[in-house]
Every structure is written in structure tokens, then in C-alpha cells.
Design goal:
Length: 130
Amino acid sequence: MYQLVCVVNGQATWGDNPSYASHQATTTASLGYGLPAERVGGLWLHPGPPTWQSEPPREYLVTFTRQTPLTPAEVLGVVARQRGHRGGLLWTAAYGYRPAACTSEGHKSRISAVRWLAEQLRGASEEATA
């Protein structure tokens, strides 16, 4: 099964196979992909898809630049929201991408998860220059 996505003028179209035998169209806002990156704690967060259309994205790819990452090598990590065992909103951060070098769960805010990821990046940078 294939899922191809084409974004043109803020409209996203996707099909289940290369022949586009079936397709749907919606806005990039409802998909998450294609929305502008957001700067948080000196890093750029690129939104992924929302769980429900009325909610914010559930995960963000993290990069050093505002440009949308085109390869996994450009992704520094991922920040994702989830529900805790009592139903509260928690955030998870993963340093590295496919595979993650390390993760940290249970952050009470997205900013806290991004700060943890930034600390991991600083630590890796200091090790590389030492």
C-alpha cells in the first residue's frame, strides 16, 4: 500500500496507490505537514499530524534550521505529546532520529522536552570538540 502526498498552494492531496485510483483532499493544517516551523529554545520544531483535527500536532521533528528537513540526517530529534496513565498531557523527547540515541519521557511541557533535547545536543557538541 502506498500513501502519496502532494502539497500545492496549501492544499494536500493523497492517494492510496501510485495510480491515484482513490484520493482525498484537505488542507495542510489538518494534516500538520506543511505548516510553518516554530522556534522553541533555539531549535526549530516542524509539526507532524494532529491526533484530531481540532488538536495541535502530536509530534514535531526538531532541526537547527527553519527549512523543512528533507532527509533523516537533517533531523536532530523528535518531541511528541502523549497521555500519561492518569490521562494528563506529557511530552517525550528523543535525541537522534532512526534510531534515537536516548529518550526522556514524562516532561510536563513541550518546552521542557525541547530543553532536554538541547542539553543533549550541547553535550554531544562539547564531546565532539574535546
